[in-house]
Amino acid sequence: PIQEAKLIWRNGKLVPWAEATTHVLTHGLHYGSGVFEGMRAYDARRKGVAIFRNREHIERLLFSAKVYKINIDYSAEDLMAACREVVRENGLKSAYIRPIAYLGYGEMGPASQACPTDVVIAAFPWGAYLGEEGLANGIDVCVSSWRRPAPGTIPAGVKAAGNYLSSRLVSMEAKDRGFAEGIGLSHDGTVSEGAGENLFVVLRERIITPPAASSILAGITRDTVMTLARALGYEVVEQPIPREMLYAADELFFTGTAAEVTPVRSVDRIPVGTGARPVTKKIQSAFFGLFTGETEDKWGWLDPVE
Ligand code: PMP
User: Fold this and answer.
1) Domain around 255
2) Which positions, given as ranges, span the membrane (predicted)?
3) What is the pLDDT of residues 17-56, one digit of tens each?
4) Measured from the CB, is residue 185 less than 6 Å from ligand 1?
5) For ligand 1, atom 4: residue with the closest CA
6) Which of the following is catalytic: 66, 159, 175, 281?
7) Are 43 and 291 in contact (CB under 8 A)?
8) Is the ipTM above a cut-off of 0.90?
9) Whether 47 contacts 302, CB under 8 Å
């Protein structure tokens, strides 16, 4: 269950958690016409409670809204401030933040232009998505029988509510089969991403991740990890990954706001590499170091809520 906080930001005002409800004929509920973000606030020792890459998440939200012509009457600055406000006013020390903009109640039909847009931002505590155990020891995953949406269908690079039906199929199938998560293949059979995570392969000291054209959401954690890995001196390349490269990899890991940097220890019950994870460990410490202060935030990624 969700660990409830006190207040939710809705269309410019903070309202009690239980009152943040919507009509059953909300457009977004019927047609998936919502765009959202998932971001985290950390108790960053040096900066106090801070939102990680607030601007990039809000900019992606505005981009997603633009694609589906979901009008948002707030600027990026307004929405970033609202995210800080929700975390601050709920007194949260660390939080998962979920902004969503969806077409509300007013008219039926997928092409409706007459529905109002509701913009909502919730924040609540949420621990390691794939488990603390998974963060430390890696998780067991499978390749899904479900493909990710192909280019020219529902755009995978847009973070819209409807996309998560694909994630639901991939993830449910994996869990039913006893795995922690599933990896979706792209329309052409190359590796795409996890149900809610980007994927990285470490092979002979190179770090490889599928390009935007492989039906992925270009994750902000993915970008963070590419930046940190390059700063650590690694060669990072975006290139199509054939499925068998998953079984050849020395190391594999997932990235995502919820998943953070989670090692993958087996794919389809085939162990990844020797089980040693020197590169993943360095990347995990660089990543989590951003919040403890051990990694200098040279990029201005932390946005303090106070
Ligand atoms: N792919 C999908 C399908 C996702 O849902 C997410 C989580 N937002 C990611 C990748 C990772 O993106 P980010 O690092 O921006 O959270």
Assistant:
1) 132-292
2) none
3) 999 999 999 999 999 999 999 999 999 988 999 999 999 9
4) no
5) 196
6) 159
7) yes
8) yes
9) yes
